[in-house]
Amino acid sequence: MVRTRRIWVTAAAVLALVGGVSGTTAHARQAPAATASDGRLPPGWHLDQGRQAPQLVWRSGRRVPMGDARVEFRAAGRLLGVPKPERDGHTFRLGLDGSRTGALTDLQVWSGGRRLDTRPGAAATAPSAAVRPPAPLPANAVDPGRPGPYRTKTGSYRLKSVRLPGFSVPVEMQAVVVAPTGISGARPLALFLHGRHATCYAPHGGSDDASGAWPCPAGTLPVPSHRGYLRDQQLLASQGYVTVSISANGINGQDWQAEDGGAQARSSLIRLHLAHWADWARDPRHAPPIIREAPRADLSRVLLIGHSRGGEGVNRAALDSLYPPPAGQDGYRGKVRWHISGTVLIGPTVFGQNPVPDVPSLTILPGCDGDVSDLQGEVYVDGTRAVSSGRALHSAVYVIGADHNFFNTEWTPGQAQAPAEDDFFDDPDHPDPVCSPHAATRLTADQQHRAGSAYIAAAARLFVAGDDKVRPLLDGSGRRAPSADPARVLAHAVGANRGAGFLPDGKVTVTGGRLCSAVDPDPAVACLGGGTAGVSPHFAQWETAREAGRHAIALHWTSAGTPTRIRVARPVSLSGAEALTLRVFVPPNSRGTALDVSVTDSHGRRAALGRVRADGLPGSDRTASYWARELRVPLAAARRAGLDLRSVASLDLTPRSGSGRAWLMDAWGWRPGTPAVRAAGLPRVDVGRLTVDEGDSGVRTYHVPVRVSGHGTGRVRVYVVDPATGTAKDRLVTVRPGGHGIDVPVEVRGNTRYGADVPYDVLVKAVHGAVVGSYLGGLTVHDDDPAPTVSVTPLADRVTEGSDLKWRISLSAAADTDIGALFVPVPVGSGGTELSTKDVDPRWLADASGADPAPERPLSQVDGLYLWLDVPAGQTHLDVTVPTVRDQVAEPAESVTFQQADDDGKPLPGGLTLTGTVLDAS
């Protein structure tokens, strides 16, 4: 068994634009060896034998619960990839193919904006004193969290399991239904989808016995995650909604292998259930009993509620219901017989960062989320700006003190059937000032769930029932639902009756402040530079280290009175608006930031609109508390001053506090109300993946498969990733159905030398007038040459102590990739004496295993001792030495045997061996 580490393939990735204009041609080059700069990997990391390629392995000292955020390996800030989790909950493996080469320096493990591999003993950041929760907002005139007049009935159904593209094991079709009783006529349908959690548990076991296996092994039971929203279902059913919560354990157990994290599979599952509901609504005679006993579901009024990866799943289901996906990627083949009126996304993932622009949405952001801790779900709001008409309301509510799991009772300790835990891991020696269980800002599980129920009901009442009286709870108007008390829930929004505005992503000029980039490795360019404690949901990272087209405006002042001016390239119209609404955030725990707001029209007339004040959210270095509050100033003063509100050229923000920092996300003309929304006919882009053989000779050109369907013309941003460096180049591309706007050819030069597979990744993000389904794809060049055989020749396998044992690893032919094998020490045969830790050079022992010689023990008993033997690309042999030391102790001949190991570091039967004997020097 051999291992590969790097590839030498002549290739080019060209981004061709409409009209035949080509982008930059990037040629892949031989990458350096995948080792740390000093030849050693950090504690917890090692390179392991892989069947197709070497694997980078990280083992956590504590169990990493199965969650929704992806675990990511990074090196020097560059994304290496998403590793495969092992069932033990501690081990993660990433195959090092041709795109994941390079020096493995500064290795880190991240998940949802949180680093997982903090080294034991590392100094913890001393927490700052957190402010107490903000004062309660005024109560809204209508409280949607109060139960309705109807009694409810609960039941369940189980249908035949389904096969979904890319998944080898069928997925269950199972759900729990809660419906109102004593009501006539068709009722709107609310469908819930849980997120990614453990799939199976041992009834009498602990958290270590929970796993992501599917189907569940003997002696274990499925985790009933879909039953965790019964309280929310009962509230909605009491208000007249038919509700269903579907199970997705079969997806959770397999989605690690899906490039999109399972979003398309979850969409397919949702729409398969909706298709059955449409059948049952037309003819209930063959429906499950609970469906026959419930009011008929009105499929023209559907609300989708998704938690975590379920949130991304319902977003994709809404997209797929409007703009059909490619048939080969989809598990649903029928017609769309329903209308999605809105979505609720609870602590959601957004790996694709392509929200549906024309379906209203509410995103619930838990302030103490320990799973999707960067609160990337904010992109469901920010990412819709300027993509379509902007008439759909996209709201985010920030729930101070809420964690990720407690919105689902089956993920809540003391309420769940399976083992459950608080996902915000708190260090007892360094309790978090905001999110530790006893912090003044932290909610209990029941308080959190009650708040979640109230705001789910608010979305239902606004998006489905069309009751504008609940809008102030969601659109940043500064009202609260008393039924959610004592939770502090803050809201902001884009869309609905917001008109033209000042958007940093557009063509703007900034003076007195800085136009900053949401995602950039350069601290001088990034909105939140190095040294910032905590993160911002607005700047959640995507797949690339640098992103174009995502900006904010950063203000930093040391004295009051110096304005920051934002001038737009084309004047905007605020005519008809009642107020100017700004989304602004200030550092967590700060107080008293005051900004004067003024506007100037294109004729030079200026008017002061008023003063806004902002306090920071409660935050720590472990929270995503740089989140924008919505601040409004009336436009009455501008009208009195005679400004031409049809042509406003600039916006000024003048600090009135002594010093401080603030960030402006955007500013809009605003008036109350919720307009009707009609989805625009837009082109949809889906990137596929093609795998081709390298071939033995010649040069072949292949094209990354990209499908553009739908209607109209739009713009997207296309990123082409260099497989050698991991860096991406981007271009704005105009797309239309049947067009060839996105053309990424890859040249592949064949040869007969063994190498690694090389993926050429392409990513797409919507900019204007388009939507994106499958955002990540590309072309993978499969090396089709046989691997060289490996042999071992002893060079000095019987030496006197103080000399080096030496062997030669030889290849039958040179390869275009590093070829290596892993060897581990095994006990010597019966009757022999084994070489010990005090018989070898202590520096060699430390380098090979990190172990100390004392206490003296046989080498086969040293934990973590292995030999990673690597023949560099282009070479045919490698000499291996084990240095021994001379001592003054008379002892018999001692032996050592290193056996080739498998993927798990266990001796490989029939594998190569390195055997040597050391003789006493006395």
Question: Quick gist of this model?
Answer:
The chain is mainly β.
Structural overview:
- The protein has nine helices and 52 strands.
- The two termini are 41 Å apart.
- The longest helix is centred in the N-terminal third of the chain and has 20 residues, at 263-282.
- The model is unreliable at 1-39 and 119-127 (pLDDT under 50).
- The strands form eleven sheets. The chain has a nine-stranded mixed beta sheet with strand order 12-13-17-14-18-19-20-21-22, sandwiched between helices. Strands 1, 45, 47, 48, 49, 51 and 52 form a seven-stranded mixed beta sheet that branches. Strands 23, 25, 26, 28, 31 and 33 form a six-stranded antiparallel beta sheet that branches.
- It is 10% helix and 33% strand.
Salient structural properties:
922 residues, mainly beta, 52 strands, globular
Write the layout of secondary structure elements.
Blueprint: E1 3-4, E2 11-13, E3 26-27, E4 45-48, E5 55-59, E6 71-75, E7 78-81, E8 84-85, E9 91-95, E10 107-111, E11 114-115, E12 152-162, E13 171-180, E14 187-193, E15 200-201, E16 221-222, H1 230-238, E17 242-246, H2 249-252, H3 263-282, H4 289-293, E18 297-307, H5 309-322, E19 340-346, E20 361-366, H6 379-382, E21 394-399, H7 445-464, E22 489-494, E23 498-502, E24 508-511, E25 514-517, E26 551-557, E27 564-572, E28 579-585, E29 593-601, E30 606-614, E31 629-634, H8 636-640, E32 648-655, E33 660-670, E34 683-687, E35 689-693, E36 699-703, E37 706-710, E38 714-721, E39 728-735, E40 745-749, E41 758-768, E42 771-772, E43 776-782, E44 790-796, E45 798-800, E46 804-811, E47 819-826, E48 833-834, H9 842-849, E49 867-871, E50 877-883, E51 894-900, E52 913-919
Parallel strand pairs: 14-17, 14-18, 18-19, 19-20, 20-21, 34-42, 35-43, 45-52, 48-51
Antiparallel strand pairs: 1-47, 2-3, 2-40, 4-5, 5-9, 6-7, 6-10, 8-9, 10-11, 12-13, 13-17, 15-16, 21-22, 23-33, 24-27, 25-26, 26-33, 27-32, 28-31, 28-33, 29-30, 29-32, 34-37, 36-40, 38-39, 38-41, 41-43, 44-46, 46-50, 47-49, 47-51, 51-52
Helix pairs in contact: 1-7, 3-5
